[in-house]
Write a sequence for this structure.
C-alpha cells in the first residue's frame, strides 16, 4: 500500500508514501448541470464589516499596489 518515494534509491532504502490527498471541491460545471446556485464564500456581513474596519487601510494599500 503506497508508492515509492525515490525510484533512484536501492530497493532496501526505498520508503512508502502513506499520505492521500482528496480534492473534495465540486467543479462549477456541476452546479450548472444540476441547476443549482454556486455557494457564496463571503462570511457573515457583520464579520466582513469588522474585518474592513480593522484591516481596511492595509488591504486598500495592498490592492492599490497591484
Amino acid at each position: 500500500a503506497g508508492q515509492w518515494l525515490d525510484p533512484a534509491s536501492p530497493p532496501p532504502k526505498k520508503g512508502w508514501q502513506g499520505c492521500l490527498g482528496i480534492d473534495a471541491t465540486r467543479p462549477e460545471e456541476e452546479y450548472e448541470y444540476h441547476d443549482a446556485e454556486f455557494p457564496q464564500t463571503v462570511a457573515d456581513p457583520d464579520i466582513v464589516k469588522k474585518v474592513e474596519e480593522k484591516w481596511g487601510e492595509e488591504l486598500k494599500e495592498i490592492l492599490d499596489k497591484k
About this structure: The mean pLDDT is 76. The CA atoms of residues 23 and 30 lie 15 Å apart. The chain has one domain: 11-65.
